[in-house]
């Protein structure tokens, strides 16, 4: 809990690693994920570092593994379970893994190329078969004197001759030729027009579409093809036709000169196609065997190569000592994990067989350490909410433990509905119970991943919504009469206030709580269900929720101001308690805390008998600032004097907040005889700079290294700048004083969104469910089924998803702006430990794993 509240205490340490055991030591640290390494070679480029060749080998292996994974995925072969977590292989085993991958790549590439070649040959033979079959119909139609599908008639007398007769062409002194092939269906129209324009009609084009889909050799997608036959005369025309066919990527095949040759070619094609099918089937079986064998080890190789590459990357961050026999690394490490770090180094030295052990040494530093806050699967979601605003400074109070309660509670105040909260809680509970399901965790849907990662937040929001739904007595816009209403209509007739004629003559009647027996006492839990039937229900709930929002907001902000004391005490800045915290708290409580007091006082003191005499709180609050109100009825005796006193205290807090801290720090640095304070300790003139440095290092290790000087960008050795400190404090004072007004008004969103949610729920019930429930015939039962389905869909999509997202965003704003800015700066740096489990994988990003 201490780690979650303030973060781990960090230290800067040096690791002395023997050259022979450095690889194994880094591997052990990567498995633990304890430390963050610093780059000790910032001036050395990436390509000039020692282990750049090893990293290139790892990248080459990653390329081969990516190729293998793509082929495995293309073959629809499932990878084995990912429960294995192999250790990083030794450096001497890198070449053997490299050779295995290269050999597998060559074998797989050769088999794949043979398969592609066989498939391309099979496609060509299939297209050739379709071409011969379809062009035979062109010849038969020509013999039967049927017109072609498309022909250009430059010589009308040629209609009397068949396509295959050479006599007429020979009489013209030209050589008749044929070009046949296949073209994509989408290109045939443009192809036809191009032939006409270029060849001036000296061609005859016939074409017909192939019935079945043929695979495109370039894209692998099935597509429709068209068989064409072009008759031309003249070699020059033939050259033009071939160039046009090349431009349109036509697949050309030789055209037989006689029927006997055509039959021989068709018979040969049939035999070759059967042989290709047999060979292709065997090739696919062998390729599947190779891929099955590769899939058994590919995940292990991916993990090993990722770990190897990460280790060599870390080794490049280290520097050599003067003897070139020892590697030196600097790491940020939690103080509590120093013994674990030492044991990991000893284990790495033992595995490598090194006789000289590696060890760790803490070193002092003035650099601000990174922030480490340990979380589990429950607290990680709430910590992410805080980190989205900003990572906390080192050892600063973390808002996450308090956000676990306040965030779902403020959400539930805006979303309060028993039925909607139960649906949300059950959905989140289902995700929690099946949180180890791989199908739920390993999806590429970002929206689902967002919901799944925040399943515990949704569960808490649902549970708190059930609670506030009970307080509001609201379940799908209907009230639950669990304990029986505290109001009685019978007493109005018993006491003779109402008569039968009053009921018949009036649509609305008012229950008088002053009549004996009408109001027997408050409802045990929440709002009385009779208010759901009252005509002034909205007026009553508006007043109640608005005042409740103001009270919750003032409590929330005051709690944030109080939390700042933990920072002041921890960082040895006790003067901030008197010069910052106390003026802030007095300003907030004397004005807005007094407003909450008046609300509660009016609730407790005024009853139904004298409720008409109760004064307006808003008017009294305005008159408090105007120093007026002598002619008005006071809320309590001595109200005017107390209000003047509170306003004076609040006004006097502003100059103290503005000038107190800068003046005190100026006196601290420029006081008589140079007497000052250094991080909470009395400091006098030192005889040596070494003694002062050691004291500073000791304070830094204790976590007290965040004085006002360091937070304002200065160092203890630098000269104090009063103007800079005054400017910062002036900005803070203006922001805080104005923020108290705006932030208090901002909490009215709790009232507004709660009202909007309740009204939307009531409108949805009245316009959907009530329509189905009013039908009392047999058909009404059947009609109720689609009505209920529509009601369920609208409830989930509008009231749960849209309204839930709206309430979530508003609760997020209340925490970031109104709560956290009272004590949380969020300008720190998060610790990024070297951990194999946290390393990103390009294969997972590409969907290969």
UniProtKB/TrEMBL annotation:
InterPro entries in the record: V-ATPase_116kDa_su (IPR002490), V-type_ATPase_116kDa_su_euka (IPR026028)
Q: Which gene encodes it?
A: atp6v0a2b
Instruction: Give one GO biological process term.
Output: vacuolar acidification
- Membrane topology summary: Multi-pass membrane protein
Q: Does the keyword Protein biosynthesis apply?
A: no
User: GO molecular function: any one?
Assistant: ATPase binding
Function as written in the Swiss-Prot or TrEMBL entry: Essential component of the vacuolar proton pump (V-ATPase), a multimeric enzyme that catalyzes the translocation of protons across the membranes. Required for assembly and activity of the V-ATPase.
Gene Ontology CC annotation, any one: vacuolar proton-transporting V-type ATPase, V0 domain
Q: Name one Pfam family in it.
A: V_ATPase_I
Q: What is this protein called?
A: V-type proton ATPase subunit a
């Amino acid at each position: 809990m201490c780690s979650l509240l303030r973060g781990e205490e960090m230290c800067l340490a040096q690791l002395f690693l023997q050259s022979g055991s450095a690889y194994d030591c880094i591997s052990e640290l990567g498995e633990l994920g304890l430390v963050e390494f610093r780059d000790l070679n910032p001036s050395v480029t990436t390509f000039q570092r020692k282990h750049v060749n090893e990293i290139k080998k790892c990248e080459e292996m990653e390329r081969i593994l990516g190729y293998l994974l793509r082929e495995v995925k293309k073959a629809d072969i499932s990878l084995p379970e990912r429960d294995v977590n192999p250790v990083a292989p030794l450096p001497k085993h890198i070449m053997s893994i490299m050779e295995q991958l290269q050999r597998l790549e060559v074998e797989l590439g050769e088999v794949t190329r043979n398969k592609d070649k066989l498939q391309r040959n099979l496609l060509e033979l299939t297209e050739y078969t379709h071409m011969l079959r379809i062009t035979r119909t062109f010849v038969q139609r020509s013999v039967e004197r049927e017109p072609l599908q498309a022909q250009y008639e430059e010589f009308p007398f040629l209609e009397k001759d068949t396509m295959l007769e050479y006599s007429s062409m020979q009489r013209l002194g030209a050589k008749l030729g044929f070009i046949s092939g296949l073209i994509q269906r989408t290109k045939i129209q443009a192809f036809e027009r191009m032939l006409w324009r270029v060849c001036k009609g000296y061609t005859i084009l016939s074409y017909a579409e192939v019935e079945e889909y043929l695979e495109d050799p370039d894209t692998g997608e099935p597509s429709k093809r068209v068989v064409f036959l072009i008759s031309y005369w003249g070699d020059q025309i033939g050259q033009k036709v071939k160039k046009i066919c090349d431009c349109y990527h036509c697949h050309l095949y030789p055209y037989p000169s006689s029927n006997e040759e055509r039959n021989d070619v068709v018979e040969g094609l049939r035999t070759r196609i059967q042989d290709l099918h047999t060979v292709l089937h065997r090739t696919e079986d062998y390729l599947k065997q190779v891929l099955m064998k590769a899939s058994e080890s590919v995940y292990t190789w991916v993990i090993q190569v990722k770990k190897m590459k990460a280790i060599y990357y870390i080794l490049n961050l280290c520097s050599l000592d003067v003897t070139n026999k020892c590697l030196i690394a600097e790491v940020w490490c939690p103080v509590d994990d120093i013994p674990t770090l030492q044991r990991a180094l000893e284990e790495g030295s033992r595995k490598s067989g090194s006789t000289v052990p590696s060890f760790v040494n803490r070193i002092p530093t003035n650099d601000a350490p990174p922030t480490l806050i340990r979380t589990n699967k429950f607290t990680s979601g709430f910590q992410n909410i805080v980190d989205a605003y900003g990572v906390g400074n080192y050892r600063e109070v973390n808002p996450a433990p308090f956000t676990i309660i306040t965030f779902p509670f403020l959400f539930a105040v805006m979303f309060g509905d028993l039925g909607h909260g139960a649906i949300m809680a059950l959905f989140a509970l289902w995700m929690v119970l099946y949180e180890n399901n791989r199908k739920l965790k390993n999806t590429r849907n970002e929206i689902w991943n967002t919901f799944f990662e925040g399943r515990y937040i949704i569960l808490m929001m649902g549970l708190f919504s059930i609670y506030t739904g009970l307080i509001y007595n609201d379940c799908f816009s209907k009230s639950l009469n669990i304990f029986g209403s505290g109001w009685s209509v019978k007493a109005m007739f018993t006491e003779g206030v109402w008569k039968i004629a009053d009921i018949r003559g009036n649509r609305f009647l008012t229950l008088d709580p002053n009549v004996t027996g009408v109001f027997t006492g408050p409802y045990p839990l929440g709002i009385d269900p009779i208010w759901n039937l009252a005509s002034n229900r909205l007026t009553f709930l508006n007043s109640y929720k608005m005042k409740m929002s103001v009270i919750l907001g003032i409590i929330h902000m005051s709690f944030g101001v109080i939390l700042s004391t933990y920072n002041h005490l921890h960082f040895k800045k006790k003067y901030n308690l008197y010069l910052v915290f106390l003026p802030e708290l007095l300003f907030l409580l004397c004005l807005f805390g007094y407003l909450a007091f008046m609300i509660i006082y009016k609730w407790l003191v005024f009853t139904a008998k004298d409720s008409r005499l109760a004064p307006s709180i808003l008017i009294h609050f305005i008159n408090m600032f105007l120093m007026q109100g002598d002619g008005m009825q006071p809320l309590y005796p001595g109200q005017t004097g107390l209000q003047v006193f509170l306003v004076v205290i609040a006004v006097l807090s502003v100059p103290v907040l503005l000038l107190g801290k800068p003046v005190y720090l100026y006196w601290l640095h420029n006081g008589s005889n140079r007497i000052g304070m250094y991080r909470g300790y009395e400091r006098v003139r030192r005889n040596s700079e070494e003694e002062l440095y050691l004291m500073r290092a000791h304070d830094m290790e204790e976590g007290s290294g965040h004085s006002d000087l360091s937070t304002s960008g200065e160092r203890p050795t630098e000269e104090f700048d009063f103007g800079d400190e005054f400017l910062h404090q002036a900005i803070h004072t203006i922001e805080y004083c104005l923020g108290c007004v705006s932030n208090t008004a901002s909490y009215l969103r709790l009232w507004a969104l709660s009202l909007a949610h309740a009204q939307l729920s009531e409108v949805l019930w009245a316009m959907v469910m009530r329509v189905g429930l009013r039908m009392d015939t047999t058909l009404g039962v059947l009609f109720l089924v689609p009505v209920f389905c529509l009601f369920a869909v609208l409830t989930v999509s509008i009231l749960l998803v849209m309204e839930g997202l709206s309430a979530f965003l508003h609760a997020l704003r209340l925490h970031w702006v109104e709560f956290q800015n009272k004590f949380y700066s969020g300008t720190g740096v998060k610790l990024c430990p070297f951990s194999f489990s946290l390393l990103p994988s390009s294969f997972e990003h590409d969907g290969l794993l």
